[in-house]
Backbone:
């Protein structure tokens, strides 16, 4: 008799847990969709001449560039400050590197399972574009993609030449986030 009552109760519990999981996934997707709308608005204001426009009132980051990969249909707003809060919403600019679209090595970082997932699909010779707030666009050509150990390797902060380094965690399908390996795509200004 007792097992007859337990089966419906377990069924309701399973349905409740399933609804909770689906609700959580919907919340994450809804938050990401809303963030993209707010990032686009902040980028438009930045392109219009405003400086350091936060995408939402409490944000401690702002758009600094737009990254585009035409062949893949990828377009990402690049945020200031490569920290966890900025990286949750898009790729970010490592502020100790050269400013986007200028001479030197510009380093952009992003999560391997979201905003920089497309790095796995880039090929040598691929064109990447960076648009700055002043409207200047710089085209880069992918020269290499390699896996490095972040504990041993250093990205060179090259002077003179315009280089773009896109960095994410590796492997792309890792179950646990982080780890010491990084996937680095290096591109040079198309005029080089």
Residues:
């Amino acid at each position: 008799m007792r097992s007859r009552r337990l089966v419906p109760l377990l069924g309701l519990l399973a349905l409740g847990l399933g609804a909770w999981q689906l609700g959580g996934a919907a919340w994450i997707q809804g938050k990401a969709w809303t963030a993209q709308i707010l990032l686009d608005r902040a980028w438009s204001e930045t392109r219009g001449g405003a400086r350091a426009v936060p995408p939402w009132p409490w944000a401690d980051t702002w758009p600094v560039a737009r990254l585009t990969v035409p062949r893949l249909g990828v377009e990402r707003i690049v945020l200031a400050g490569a920290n966890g809060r900025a990286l949750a919403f898009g790729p970010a600019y490592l502020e100790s590197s050269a400013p986007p679209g200028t001479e030197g090595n510009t380093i952009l970082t992003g999560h391997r399972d979201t905003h920089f997932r497309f790095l796995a699909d880039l090929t040598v010779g691929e064109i990447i574009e960076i648009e700055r707030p002043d409207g200047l666009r710089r085209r880069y050509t992918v020269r290499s993609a390699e896996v490095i150990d972040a504990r041993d390797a250093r990205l060179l902060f090259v002077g003179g030449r315009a280089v773009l380094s896109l960095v994410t965690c590796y492997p792309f399908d890792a179950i646990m986030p982080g780890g010491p390996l990084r996937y680095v795509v290096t591109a040079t200004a198309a005029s080089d």
In short: The chain has two helices and eight strands. Residues 2-47 form the longest helix (46 residues).
